[in-house]
Design brief:
This protein is an alpha+beta fold. The chain has ten helices and 27 strands. The longest helix has 22 residues, at about 430-450. It is globular, with a radius of gyration of 26 Å.
């Protein structure tokens, strides 16, 4: 049974999950949302001929221990046998600066080193293709094995015995073995030298990256590890931030709420970018802003979906995968996500809040200008028009639309930040226009969502009598006015009804049980 205690390794192009016993059980190639070459996380191994994993087995295994190298995502696993033998397995994906850019190939490096005794190991590399439907075929050369998939060919280059790998025969460890799994390309130096150089360069890159983070002395270990993990979820090529590396891990046992999170939710991405920016990792913010601008430029009439694929295109439609039984047998397994069809108005605020840094953060070399302001201004138009309209909300309710406080507040935030940006750039007319929309949204949100007995805000509010228009009335000057309590009443919603799971949408990025969102004031 696969434990949820898994370690993440990656480099911004691929990400893999490793068990405490150094078995890679999840990894998509050639990028985060690709075909899971290693997919045994979603299919229990019950037969000897099962595939979809990369294991290093220590014969007569007794115990193991695992940790990351300090300030890096380089994973080290030590395994001990019953006779005093010990090996050390170092797993990582190369990432470092080379030729003036970040080198982060579709590549996984595994180094096995003898520490003590006479340990025997067996390496089992069994890639899958077609979401675990078929094992990859193989061909071999003097120092490599090619694994043939439907759309991708991977090459394992190694200084270990090719016969031992193909036949999965145990062998004694003499010193060290290097295995590099990556593109089907010839390696022009010895694999051991390449592995050592990649390890040295990768460790140096991550330690330099951590060195420039602005972190207080308290809880440094936890904050550094969290920052590295967030950084590993950023797709380097396009600037997208995936919600998770996996698909179809159940929100609750047997719930069927198994969603594909290998996509970019604009809301979640903003939280990640904001957190890393506060630590000083400004490059991630710049890359993500480029991603957002490309998304906005491709959006019809500037309307945004809650989530997009990591390339910036609309995410693929959701489908069930019958070739994988699911985590611990709890299917279904899904690829794609239906949340891309939902309406969530808070995304306009998330996008503009992410862009705001570029106009005010003086650490950046390329600052926001009037041209950039006009490119994101269309988002503010939508926020001003939609702040009082029903949507699926932050909990991504399926088949139900209501006016949600969080969405309304985020629309207000979009108008507010645009007004501030316009004032900062000296665009007086634009600033005044945005301030008017900002005041209308702020007044409405404050009056309608207030719950004075708790000093917090309601999760949502609706209107009475039922059947009346959900659009708030406008006065002669065109501004929205907050209706009186006779025509528009906030409806109290019990916590019990919020915990309903039957209306949760596929791909909801919220918690398993809904809770009220507290707002100050």
């Amino acid at each position: 049974m696969t434990s949820p205690d898994l370690a993440l390794i990656g480099n911004g192009t691929i990400g893999c999950l490793v068990t405490p016993g150094a078995e890679i059980v999840w990894g998509c190639f050639p990028r985060f949302d690709g075909d899971p070459v290693f997919c045994s996380l979603l299919r229990e191994r019950t037969r000897e001929e099962d595939f979809g994993f990369f294991a290093v087995d220590l014969i007569d295994h007794a115990r193991d221990e695992q940790q990351y190298l300090v300030n890096t995502p380089i994973l080290v696993t030590r395994m001990h046998d019953r006779y005093g033998g010990c090996i050390e397995i170092t797993d990582f994906s190369p990432r470092f600066r080379q030729c003036g850019r970040i080198f982060c190939p579709m590549m996984l490096v595994r180094q096995i080193r003898r520490i003590a005794g006479n340990p025997r190991v067996r390496v089992r590399l069994r890639p899958a293709n077609g979401y675990g439907r078929h094992p990859s075929g193989s061909t071999s050369g003097s120092h490599h094995i090619r694994y043939l998939g439907a759309d991708l060919v991977l090459r394992l280059t190694t200084d270990a015995s090719i016969t031992a790998l193909l036949e999965e025969t145990p062998f004694f460890m003499e010193d060290r073995v290097t295995l590099i799994l990556g593109p089907d390309e010839t390696m022009h130096d010895s694999v051991s030298k390449v592995g050592r150089r990649f390890l040295k360069e990768t460790a140096a890159y991550w330690r330099e990256w951590v060195r420039y983070l602005g972190i207080p002395f308290e809880w440094q270990d936890a904050v550094i590890r969290a920052a590295i993990t967030l950084k590993l979820n950023v797709f380097e090529d396009a600037g997208a931030v995936v919600a998770a590396m996996t698909t179809s891990i159940p929100e609750a046992a047997g719930s069927g709420r198994n969603w594909d999170y290998r996509h970019c939710w604009l809301r979640d991405a903003y939280f990640v970018v904001n957190a890393l920016n506060r630590l000083g990792a400004t490059r991630t913010m710049e890359r993500h802003l480029g991603y957002i601008l490309n998304v906005v430029a491709s959006a019809p009439d500037g309307r945004l979906h809650p989530m997009y694929g990591i390339s910036g295109r609309e995410a693929v439609d959701e489908r069930e995968v019958d070739s994988l039984s699911g985590y611990r047998g709890m299917g279904p397994v899904r690829a794609g996500n239906q949340a891309n069809r939902q309406v969530q108005h808070d995304v306009y605020g998330s996008a503009i809040l992410a862009a705001t840094h570029v106009f005010f953060d003086q650490r950046l070399v390329q600052r926001g200008d009037e041209a950039l302001f006009h490119r994101i201004e269309a988002l503010g138009e939508h926020a001003a028009a939609l702040f009082d309209q029903p949507d699926a909300g932050i909990w991504e309710l399926r088949g139900v639309r209501r006016v949600h406080t969080f969405s309304s507040v985020m629309c207000w935030a979009a108008c507010d930040r645009l007004a501030r940006i316009a004032a900062h750039l000296g665009l007086g007319g634009r600033a005044e226009s945005r301030s008017s929309a900002n005041c209308a949204a702020a007044t409405s949100c404050s009056a309608i969502s207030r719950k004075t007995t708790l000093g917090s805000r309601r999760m949502r509010f609706s209107y009475a009598p039922s059947g009346t228009s959900t659009r708030w009335p406008r006065s002669a000057d065109g501004m929205r006015r907050v209706p009186s309590s006779r025509t528009c009443l906030p409806v109290a919603t019990s916590t019990a009804s919020w915990r309903s799971t039957s209306t949760r949408a596929p791909g909801s990025s919220g918690a398993t049980s809904c809770r009220p969102i507290a707002w100050s004031g």
